[in-house]
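Quiz preparation item.
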């Protein structure tokens, strides 16, 4: 995936869950942050950010945050996840996409695949000591998705989870038990019951004001 027209800035503060203040050319401006996670390891004053200007009459800000630098560039825009997953799914799961945002047992699952499988996609930004951890904040919605995928297995569906680790410096992914123990228990149960759980590394490669998001490969997912 290519992204053009990127603008450099520096992080100042997080105003609320989806709004941040950044500095562009010495001037503070507001930007939309499309990531509900805590991101406390990334949202550090002075950290370099990459933004893209957006048009829209109903927008409150002119800019979207695309990535934040924390030693490595970290993609923090969940609006990119679906398009990224669509390119990766055929390579990883050898299935095509039958339907997007498929409602099943009261949950909206990201994809119904043409191999009679449900697939949920999760973005992961937190890495410590080369270990990627998900989630970085409690996620009742994410927990519900996992439990729904387990139930789908009991109804003759195949269930799959794809973690998009949106930085290149992880070697393994584990559930973040410290942050959300119930989610960790559910993911461990899902893996034990045959839900296929995969994780891939993505790297943002910047060239001037353009960037390419590159698939670096897979990493193992281990219980935690």
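Solution:
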């Amino acid at each position: 995936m290519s992204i053009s027209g990127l603008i450099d800035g520096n992080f100042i503060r997080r105003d609320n869950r989806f709004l941040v203040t950044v500095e562009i050319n010495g001037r503070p401006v507001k930007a939309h942050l499309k990531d509900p996670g805590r991101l406390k390891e990334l949202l550090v004053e002075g950290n370099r950010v990459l933004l893209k200007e957006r048009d829209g009459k109903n927008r409150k800000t002119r800019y979207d945050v695309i990535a934040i630098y924390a030693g490595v560039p970290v993609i923090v825009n969940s609006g990119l996840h679906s398009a990224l997953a669509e390119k990766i799914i055929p390579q990883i799961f050898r299935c095509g996409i039958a339907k997007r945002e498929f409602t099943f047992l009261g949950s909206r699952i990201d994809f119904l695949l043409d191999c009679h499988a449900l697939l949920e996609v999760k973005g992961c930004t937190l890495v410590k000591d080369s270990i990627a951890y998900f989630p970085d904040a409690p996620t009742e919605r994410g927990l519900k998705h996992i439990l729904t995928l387990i139930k789908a297995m009991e109804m003759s569906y195949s269930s799959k989870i794809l973690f998009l680790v949106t930085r290149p410096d992880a070697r393994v992914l584990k559930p973040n038990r410290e942050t959300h123990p119930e989610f960790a228990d559910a993911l461990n149960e899902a893996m034990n019951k045959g839900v296929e759980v995969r994780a891939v590394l993505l790297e943002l490669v910047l060239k001037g004001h353009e960037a390419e998001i590159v698939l670096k490969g897979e990493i193992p997912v281990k219980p935690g």
